[in-house]
Each structure stands twice: as C-alpha cells, then as structure tokens.
Write a sequence for this structure.
C-alpha cells in the first residue's frame, strides 16, 4: 500500500492481486484507489455521513469523485454492498452518473437505508440491474 498525502487528503493506493474482500467505512477525506484487484469478489462501502457537512459544492464534488474512483477499482466484483451516504455521495457530481461502472460478474447487490428519490441510486440500478446475474 502506498500513501501520497497532500493538502486535500491522502491518495491511498491498494495493490490487491490476491485480495478477495474489501470493506471500507468512514468519510472520504482520502482517495482510495484499488489496483490489480481482479481477484476481489466482495466489497462493502459505507460513508459515515461526515460529507453532510461539506461547506462547498467543490468539496462535495471531490467526495463524489473519490467514491467513483473506488467503484472503478471493482471490475470483477460479485457481491456489492453500498450504504446510504456512499450512494448519496455520487449525487454531488451528476456527470459521473453517466459513467457508473457496469459490474458484469455481480450476483448480489445490497443497499443500506437509501433515499429512493436519489439520482445516484436510480442510475446505479439502471446500469446494474440488466446485468445482475441470478
């Protein structure tokens, strides 16, 4: 794991060639990037809600991009759990919603308590449901 810090948080690079499970719960004050995570099958991502206090839209956008970059690192995921704030975070940057990754091997998708009117939730479901395998 490599850690590159700057004034806006740290960039934490996780090289997971044999990583099977990834779980993150916390605020996205740092950027987490998964590399070589093709063996990763289960991921659980939760934001504790500290993002509710972002004082600017730019900070909210930064949070959305950090969440998006984490999702990009899950190409072969089979089981994905996203909790309320993690889904809501993506709504800060609507342009990202058009590029939500398609998880072609996904067999299980779970959301925590989410706002059913959330634009990010609707876009995730539009992209994922057609490829969700029984």
């Amino acid at each position: 794991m490599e850690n590159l810090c700057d004034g806006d948080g740290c960039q934490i690079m996780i090289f997971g060639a044999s990583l099977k499970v990834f779980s993150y719960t916390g605020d996205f004050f740092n950027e987490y990037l998964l590399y070589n995570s093709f063996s990763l099958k289960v991921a659980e991502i939760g934001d504790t809600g500290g993002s509710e206090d972002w004082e600017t839209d730019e900070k909210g956008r930064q949070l959305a991009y950090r969440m998006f970059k984490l999702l990009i690192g899950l190409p072969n995921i089979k089981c994905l759990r996203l909790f309320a704030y993690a889904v809501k975070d993506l709504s800060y940057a609507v342009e990202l919603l058009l590029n939500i990754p398609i998880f072609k091997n996904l067999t299980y998708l779970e959301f925590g308590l989410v706002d059913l009117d959330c634009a990010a939730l609707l876009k995730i479901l539009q992209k994922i449901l057609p490829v969700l395998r029984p």
